[in-house]
Amino acid sequence: MPYHNHLNSYKSLITPYEETRAGFIEIALEKNRKASPFVEEARALRIIASEVDEPADLLKLNKIYGSLLTAAGLSDKALTHLTKKDQIKAVENLIDNFLKPAGEKFADELVYRFLLTRGDTLGGMMRNIAGIIGERKFARSVIAMLSIQKINYFWLHKDSKTWIANSPDDVDIENSLKGISWKNKLGYRVLLFNITVPIVRKNVDLCLLNCCHKDIGNRDSNKKFITLPEYYVALGELKGGIDPAGADEHWKTANTALDRIRNAFSKSKVKPKTFFVGAAIERSMAKEIFEQLKKGYMSNAANLTDDDQLLSLCDWLISL
């Protein structure tokens, strides 16, 4: 069984405290990185707002009108539902109720209010950051195994929807890719991230298909290869959340998804391999995962925080 290459027992799957701590630090660093543009905006806002003597004069500064709306507590989504008159009223309320009472410190108060709303925006961006970080790490591990074996690959740019050939300058491509394609002894393979699988009628984190990247690049072929169950080689669930408190819930969600996948494909008499990769794996779920592996119910599994396990699983995936 392929999992024997990196798992000795269920204990191998359990996330060590050191990795949990490192995961939280990585998320904190990413949060600070994403917050930097908002902080710079706030600094610029304060400099411009300091050009006027009275809060009421801020309305005359057209270049910060958008920032005034933000400071008034209006999100980009909320603005789509408000008229120009409503927007001006919101800014006037901000000035009368909060900026004027602040006196000479009105520019500072404006910045505080601005950052409060931007903080909500950042919170929305960060809700799935653990999952994004996990996806990036998985993609980079697949690329590393392909590179070390001198296997040429193509990667799918998620915005342009174009396939790009690998090059020595493939730095940070994991931040922009939607898929990876290569050729092994059995034929061409395409690994796609986060796609809706028609036969399952749900989103699946990782799907390995028996086809060429040129097939996926063509809209008609794309529909064919994603729709027909016989082209699926393996499907997996990836959970990048590092918080131990949510570990069991993540596994329950993933396990339900994997059951749904197996049941859907069994109706078509097709049995693709299934696998699970998770960052936060506690003792009880580790036992359950390992038991499924021993019974052959699941094909492979790895702890995302363990490089040896992750690379071993990616090596297995590349060879399928």
Task: Set down the secondary structure blueprint.
Blueprint lengths: L16 H33 L15 H7 L4 H4 L4 H16 L6 H21 L2 H20 L4 E5 L5 E3 L11 E8 L2 E11 L4 E8 L3 H5 L1 H9 L4 E8 L7 H20 L6 E6 L4 H13 L4 E4 L3 H13 L1
Parallel strand pairs: 6-7, 7-8
Antiparallel strand pairs: 1-2, 1-3, 3-4, 4-5, 5-6
Helix pairs in contact: 1-5, 2-5, 6-11
Measured by DSSP, the beta-strand proportion falls in 15-25%
What would the principal axes of the Cα set say about the shape? elongated
Share of helix among residues?
A: 40-55%
Quick check: average pLDDT? 90
Provide the succession of SSEs.
Answer: HHHHHHEEEEEHHEHEHEH
Spatial strand arrangement across the major sheet: 2-1-3-4-5-6-7-8
Structural class estimated from helices and strands: alpha+beta
Q: Give the tally of β-strands.
A: 8
Separate helix tally? 11
Uncertain stretches of 5 or more adjacent residues: none
Largest sheet: number of strands, sense, barrel closure:
8 strands, mixed
Radius of gyration: 25 Å
Span of the ends, CA to CA = 13 Å
Report on this model:
By secondary structure, the chain is α+β, with helices and mostly antiparallel strands. Helix content is 50%, strand content 17%. It is built from 11 helices and 8 strands. The protein has helices at residues 17-49, 65-71, 76-79, 84-99, 106-126, 129-148, 213-217, 219-227, 247-266, 283-295, 307-319; strands at 153-157, 163-165, 177-184, 187-197, 202-209, 232-239, 273-278, 300-303. An 8-stranded mixed β-sheet has the order 2-1-3-4-5-6-7-8, with helices on both faces. A hairpin with a 4-residue loop joins strand 4 (187-197) and strand 5 (202-209). The mean pLDDT is 90.
